[in-house]
Amino acid sequence: MADKEAKKEEIKEEVVVEEVTTEETKVKEPETFAKSGKKSKKHVEEVKAEEERQARKAERKIAETEAAAKPKGVAPVTRPKLERRGKKYQEVAKLVEKGKAYNLKDALELAIKTSPVKFDASVEIHARLGVDPRQADQNIRTTLVLPNGNGKEVRVAVFAPLDVCKAAKAAGADIAEDEEFLKRLEKGTIDFDVLISMPQYMPKLGKFARLLGPKGLMPNPKAGTVTTDIEKAVKEAKAGKVEYRVDKQAIVHIGVGKVSFGADKLAENANAFFDSLKAQKPTSLKGTYVKSVYVTTSMGPSIQIENLYN
After folding, report:
1. Would you say residue 3 lies in a domain?
2. Number of domains in the chain
3. Domain boundary among 239, 259, 275
4. Cα(154)–Cα(16) distance, integer angstroms
5. pTM above 0.85, yes or no
6. Residue 283 in 3-state DSSP?
7. In angstroms, rounded to a whole number, what is the distance separating the alpha carbons of residues 217 and 195?
């Protein structure tokens, strides 16, 4: 009897071992995939990834719904823009009639009255154009000499041969040097407002493009600062030659003088600008050229001007 029971126990152990081994082989047996189609490994992984993505999307929707259901707090009280200005600005802003377009002379006289600062503020004109600055023929950029200057003392630097530098100095240039000028730039010294260069000297300024370019000081033929007639360029710069160009928002900004000029001189400068702007109208433009024009002082309110320049 003992032998029979011992044999039964051995048989049971063998059966258990076989079951364990079969389970292990099942676990260890690698999953087989087809080479292509729905049972391919790539498709199975894509399905799993899509299921995970949809699950995350559902979680986000639930979170957004719960957030929207929560009661919102009291909205912050925002004061009108005019109330956030200074007291002096608020006082002079009352002189400007909202929504009214003034004629040029009246607008300039009003701009002088509404300058809220104690210093001699600049008078600026901002014209919104109907051009597309991304088009090469509509990217307006030019220079003009204001009849009465712009009221700023312009420091002119000239980079040219020594014999030309002497003539430039006589014409009124503040800095006129040859190789010594490059040493100034290497030190990062910029003590000028306009840089004029001869065409053959431009390659030498190439390595300083990152220094001069962002400040708008890199000489450019369109601005008249790359020229062989250095004396003429210096005299024009000193006389009040200004450059204007359309920005990415299709707006032209230009300073036409100081408050101390008076309305008459400012009007002369403004008319010179408008004549120049009209001459720059692209031939390919079919719609409205000048959409709106405003005049303002450095820290004063803007005043709309009648649009008579299309």
Report:
1. no
2. 2
3. 239
4. 101
5. no
6. coil
7. 6
